[in-house]
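Our consortium's second objective concerns turning raw sequence data into structural hypotheses that experimental partners can test. To show how far this objective has progressed, the report includes one record in full. It was chosen at random from the queue rather than selected for favorable results. The single chain below, 161 residues long, was entered without modification.
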Amino acid sequence: MRVMTAFQRYREARMTLLSELQLQRSSNRDPLSEFSEWLVVHLVHGTLAGSPVQKGWDVRAPDGDRIQVKYLANATGHWVNEHPIWVNDEMDRYAVVIIEELQPQTVIVFPTRGLEAVAQALGKRNPNQHIHFDLTQTNYQRILADPALFQALGVQVYRLA
């Protein structure tokens, strides 16, 4: 029964979070997804897509850009998870919210046009870098170590912690 009691507390906390996010829709989606989209909306001063299952993008920026939002969650220290970035014509930017120990750390927003230059600056060797590369802990640390280089390539970095 302890697990059921803990789950009830989780449910109540989740409902409180969704209320604080002022989501007008009832959501059974992953709360980290909901929170990540809300966070990007506030960082770029944008608006959420009208539907939580909007194809291709989640946030509309004031300049009209369509931003796909994802998150990458890991424990502090050595990451066990990476994030595959895939872009297409339905989005203009791709945001990844980096979460460690359930604490948002950083939001990195990649341009979809020019993604290949970002991948090359990260030392990627995979094919089709204009539409895909995997974001690793080493890549994340490289971006944080030289934000000016990546900003010149159109990457936006928002440090939260």
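The partners drew two points from this record. The helical segments are 2-20, 31-44, 115-121, 137-145, 147-152. The chain has one domain: 30-159. Both points have been shared with the crystallography group to help prioritize constructs.
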